[in-house]
Amino acid sequence: MNTLVLNNTQIDVAAEILKNGGVVGIPTETVYGLAADALNGEAVAKIFRAKGRPMDNPLIVHVAAFEDIERFHLVREIPEAAKQLAHAFWPGPLTIIMKRTDVIPHEVSAGLDTVAVRFPSHPTAQAVIRAANTPLAAPSANLSGSPSPTTAQHVLNDMKGKIDAVIDGSASAVGVESTVITLATDVPRVLRPGGITVEQLRAVLGEVEVDDAVLHKLADGAVAASPGMKYKHYAPKANVLLLKGSDDAYIRYVNAHAGEDVCALCCDEDLLLLKVKTLSLGKRGDYLTHAHHLFDCLRRIDENHTIHTVYSRLPSIEGVGLAVYNRLIRAAGFEVIDLEAI
Ligand code: AMP
Ligand code: MG
């Protein structure tokens, strides 16, 4: 298949492909998405094939207005909390899970009785959804298990020849996937941290729980509230090790383990002190910038075939730091070295 590279003046071309059951890579403010008509099960099945995504991992349905939820009859009832969240954070990087109707194909819900809905803020994403005149199912546009794409080039690296088209927009502003919150539980619960923080959600809703799988490895045999959380995710091919300890202890440890095949995923302040290859996520404590750079850094590690070991600090779980922590701990297969215990 020839993958067309479109620009944002060719929204009508993308919309035509989508109406005909095709798959198009689209820019969003979180990461690039792989979009298909969410109400067409056959079209959605193509997303799973292109990504190599396990069929039990449900997709997020993207709308271009809060009213689309009712217009397309996506959910049984819109909870009051959903209205509050939408008012505060939509359009934006927040996905809300609600009880679904039968309009949702089983390919989208993966057998669950819920559906995840998001209204993205990216103007191109909104324009494509409006022009296609249907909600779009759109997971991240990477091969399953690889770091999510934040540029059209990342999408082409993974998807060229496998999808109908990609729209080349700017680099994704947020850089990590949306925060996922479910309203199908008694107390609202965050299943995946992202650009909207737990602190922000609590300011609107009051009590909000954080699912265990956000911070910890699921116990063998446990059922994941969000099926995506059980898979090894966001992993570069090199071995990622997370180091827990002070800034000085991190630098000492990495320098003591220096080698041609070693890379430090670090902060700007560490660059002159480290004696190995470096990739910086940004200034210390600037979690928004860390999120913006994270997946690009993980992809750069893969592009440099000589790197076998990556040492990163264990991120903070404050604010957007939690989203970076959640991705990196999975990239590291939950392996953390406690420098104070050495
Ligand atoms: P992605 O589309 O790559 O950003 O991944 C979507 C994430 O949302 C995955 O972790 C899914 O498991 C999760 N998800 C989507 N729909 C649901 C749902 N109905 N219930 C729980 N998790 C969901
Ligand atoms: Mg993904």
Report on this model:
The chain is α/β, with parallel strands linked by helices. It contains eleven helices and 16 strands. It has an eleven-stranded mixed sheet with strand order 1-8-2-3-7-4-6-5-9-10-11, sandwiched between helices. It has a five-stranded parallel sheet with strand order 14-13-15-12-16, sandwiched between helices. The mean pLDDT is 95. The chain binds adenosine monophosphate and magnesium ion (MG). The site of magnesium ion has 3 residues, from loops.
Main β sheet profile: 11 strands, mixed
Strands, count: 16
Q: List cofactors, ions and other ligands.
A: adenosine monophosphate, magnesium ion
Q: If classified by CATH, what would the architecture of the largest domain be?
A: Alpha-Beta Complex
For the structure shown, list the relevant keywords.
eleven-stranded mixed β-sheet; alpha/beta; 16 strands; 30% helix; five-stranded parallel β-sheet; binds adenosine monophosphate; DHBP synthase; single chain; 2 domains; 342 residues; binds magnesium ion; Rossmann fold
